[in-house]
């Protein structure tokens, strides 16, 4: 079974600064996907970024980037030039590449951007 | 192209009543997943369905919970004889029929409150 651990229950950062959210996972699989989802107060689950484990290059989406360390089973999210709209819960998630597309989520990090 | 549609958005039930939550996947998607989010927790997988088939129900409680995805109409998550511990947000997600993308598309969730 896979597990996903987010060790930072809450974080806060000043607007325009950079923040990094941590995530580690445990799996015996070699091929898989990793995700960061954002859940704002509206509770909609929004995909922020996705990483395929076979790709060594770290994924980036505008102000969002990841540091994927496969050997260490670490998958951190960096948010640059943070904005007030980034305030949300952030969930790290794991999906096997084969079999059904079942996601295993971490417990989340509540991020607050301070004006 | 409408997203994943869930209804009702909010549902209040008294202990012992039944709750029915509906999910219409995105057009072209026939894979449906149900997740439950307890307060201050991450999402937990419940069940994975394709049209007329339950593929993986390893996350479903053994009693009182059932799910279906008929040939016509939405997927239904049914909770019989609700208890206070069933109070949670229930999210539905869908994925495409062809071409595994490793991405699930989430609805806005149904929040169940049991009095």
Describe it for me?
The complex is a heterodimer of chains A (115) and B (115). Chain A is mostly beta strands and 115 residues long. Chain A has no helices and 12 strands. In chain A, a hairpin with a 6-residue loop joins strand 10 and strand 11. In chain B, 0% of the residues lie in helices and 51% in strands. Chain B has no helices and 11 strands. Chain B is globular, with a radius of gyration of 13 Å. The model of chain B has no long low-confidence stretch (mean pLDDT 91). The chains are: A mainly beta (115), B mainly beta (115). The interface between A and B is medium-sized, with 22 and 23 residues.
Distance between the termini of chain A: 41 Å
Question: Which oligomeric form is depicted?
Answer: heterodimer
DSSP, total strands of chain A: 12
Q: Which percent bin holds the helix content of chain A?
A: under 10%
Distinct helical segment count of chain B? 0
> What is the N-to-C order of secondary-structure elements of chain B (H for helix, E for strand)?
EEEEEEEEEEE
Q: How big a fraction of the residues of chain B is strand?
A: over 45%
Give the rounded overall mean pLDDT of chain A: 93
Give the helix level of chain B as a range of percent.
under 10%
One letter per element, helices H and strands E, the order of chain A comes to EEEEEEEEEEEE
- Total beta strands of chain B: 11
Main β-sheet of chain A: number of strands, strand sense, barrel status? 6 strands, mixed
Q: Biggest interface and which pair forms it?
A: A-B, 22 and 23 residues
| Radius of gyration of chain B, CA atoms, in whole angstroms | 13 Å
End-to-end span of chain B in angstroms? 37 Å
Q: Beta-strand percentage of chain A?
A: over 45%
Q: Note the main sheet of chain B.
A: 7 strands, mixed
Structural class of chain A: mainly beta
Shape estimate of chain A: globular
Tally of DSSP helical segments of chain A: 0
Radius of gyration of chain A: 14 Å
